[in-house]
Design brief:
It comes from Lepidopterella palustris CBS 459.81. The chain is an alpha/beta fold. The chain is 26% helix and 19% strand.
């Protein structure tokens, strides 16, 4: 039986597949003092306050009356962690490329969805700290139409009960219902990378090919259940594997799986330049151009809008079902 320490030099505690926002959130979480703790919003605020002021607090022993100052736990890597990313050796490289290619100006997710494990309002706090409130975009028709208590009582006394739709979102959470810009979110991610020291020698550009879980002989000569992660550059042995790949599977278009690359045809996740050079040449020559987009997701709608903005004559949108929502740009 082979010894893993002779092959890869070490047995890692954690390997994270993918260096996007999800992979960054997991890596930062593992650097926390209590990475497995889950708090409610109220508990999280109190825990954050205690941790922030722990250096100013002291514990007095009951018997000997001695006083011991509390030390704030240091943030940093406590586990042997490795990230494998097929796109590059930088954080959110694919995320940045796709958002730039599709010319997406703002994220769809609100402010409380971010990668900071230490503060629920970490992205919001970073925005105010950097004076970048202007880069936020309000989510329309989400907060601000709450029904007051006076109006509720008036409706209850009314004989005619009219159907109405109440918005259950609290007005005090108005600050959460903004979306950050494409530049603000990566800047906040860089802040998290610097805070937890997640930069040097952590990410390797390798394409994962296979994962197996079996008994492997460790350095002491005993068997240990480990994951064997096979990549295009070798093998890694690890105790825990986290898959944070996102849309990691290779895209497949029906009937084109085994065909060579067709000029002007591409899956949305593999677009390197939009419009395609062949289409752009026709646009520059003032010739009629047509683009067909297949799919009913938000990315397909974004590509439609992008094609029209770049001068495409007509964009055809094909979906399997009927349009179920209203798209606004």
């Amino acid at each position: 039986m082979e010894n893993p320490t002779d092959i890869c030099g070490t047995v890692h505690d954690v390997i994270i597949i993918g260096a996007g926002p999800c992979g960054l959130a997991v890596a930062a979480r593992l650097c926390e003092h209590t990475p497995s703790a889950i708090f409610t919003d109220k508990e999280h605020r109190r825990y954050h306050w205690i941790r922030k002021h722990s250096s100013q607090m002291a514990i007095k022993h009951k018997k000997d009356r001695s006083v011991m100052m509390l030390q704030q736990p240091r943030l940093g890597r406590k586990y042997s962690t490795l990230l494998l990313n097929a796109t590059g050796d930088q954080w959110i490289a694919r995320w940045n490329r796709l958002f730039k290619t599709f010319e997406i100006t703002h994220l769809r997710s609100p402010m409380f969805i971010h990668v900071d494990p230490g503060d629920r309002d970490g992205l919001l706090a970073y925005t105010h700290d950097q004076d970048k409130e202007r880069e936020l975009e309000k989510i329309r028709e989400c907060v601000g139409k709450e029904i007051s208590n006076h109006r509720k009582k008036k409706r209850a006394r009314s004989r005619k009960q009219q159907p109405h739709c109440e918005v259950v979102i609290d007005e005090r959470d108005r600050k959460d219902y903004f979306t950050p810009s494409r530049t603000l979110f990566p800047e906040h991610c860089e802040c998290i990378v610097n805070r937890y020291g997640l930069r040097r020698g952590l990410i390797r550009q390798e394409n994962m090919q296979d994962i197996k879980y079996s008994d492997i002989e460790n350095a002491s000569g005993t068997d240990e259940r480990l994951f064997t992660v096979k990549t295009n550059k070798g093998r890694h042995y690890v105790r825990t594997v986290v898959l944070a790949v996102g849309p990691g599977n290779p895209p497949a278009a029906p009937g084109l799986e085994a065909a060579p690359r067709i000029e002007g045809a591409c899956h949305s996740m593999r677009i390197q330049r939009f419009p395609d050079p062949s289409v752009q040449a026709k646009i520059d020559a003032k010739r009629p151009t047509n683009v067909m987009v297949v799919g009913g997701g938000l990315i397909s709608a974004q590509i439609d809008d992008l094609a029209i903005k770049h001068g495409v004559t007509k964009a055809w949108h094909i979906m399997r079902g009927l349009l179920k929502g209203i798209l606004s740009f």
